[in-house]
Amino acid sequence: MNKFVIGVLVLIAGSASAYNFDCKKCAKMAKAAGEYYNDEVLVGELIDYFQNKTCPEIEAKEYDKKGICPYTVKAWWPELAKVLFNDVYGWFKVNTWCPEIDCDSEEKYEDTDINCFDCLNRMNSQATYFDDGVILADIIYELNYKGFCNAAAKETKEKGQELTLDDCRAGMLHYVPRLMRHMKNYPAGDQVHRTFCVEKLQCKAA
Question: Checking CA distances to 83, which of 44, 65, 172, 173 falls within 20 to 30 Å?
């Protein structure tokens, strides 16, 4: 799928040790977060959540008249997650994810300790932007016109399935805002981020 850049401005407030948060820490968190949001277990949990939360809304709006929303989410959320949530050109690109410390876009990962409070605060704060209208508009435009839908239509055609370019583009308009809003409001979101900070990032309590 084609690369694109998502401009996410995550402004963190209220962290006692945020003054010590630098670009090396941001790069470490961004790399780990990109991997974690694409973790098979978390992706699977979100698919189940979307099928039960998002699909009824999609169907109620009559955007899915064939009853294929659960299949669509299961088939395409893993692919969307790869494009959206990465630290190379997506949500976790360092210079847009940590704008308050003016990091270089090519900041490389280095091992460094990260405070657990800083980690949880940043992860929960960035999630509040998942349904930001301006960010979503940029995401949907890039998905529709910068390669994703073209590749998806070609791939499904090769498999003998029916997904036209117009179907894909309409689907992005109907699905992505709702998926991202429900992801923002995911009931287990705080616990997901606590697990990320402690187990994936191995944050330090002090």
Answer: 65
The answer to whether 121 touches 34, Cβ cutoff 8 Å, is no
pLDDT at res. 18: 52
Q: What pLDDT score was predicted for residue 78?
A: 95
Nearest residue to 171 (alpha-carbon basis) of 187, 156, 189? 156
In which residue ranges of the chain is pLDDT below 70?
1-19, 105-109
Contact between residue 177 and residue 136 where contact means Cβ atoms under 8 Å apart: yes
Q: Hey, what long-range contacts does 49-56 have (CB within 8 A, 24 or more apart)?
A: 49/182, 49/186, 50/77, 50/179, 50/182, 53/182, 54/175, 54/178, 54/179, 54/182
CA 113 to chain centre: 24
The CA-based dihedral angle spanning residues 110, 115, 117, 121, taken in that order and rounded to the nearest 10 degrees: -20
pLDDT at residue 65, rounded to an integer:
78
pLDDT tens-digit map of 54-101:
999 999 999 887 888 999 999 999 999 999 999 888 899 888 888 888
pLDDT, residue 106, reads 63
Give the torsion sign (CA, 113, 122, 74, 167): negative
Helix ranges restricted to H, the chain: 23-37, 40-60, 69-84, 94-97, 116-127, 133-145, 148-158, 165-184, 189-195
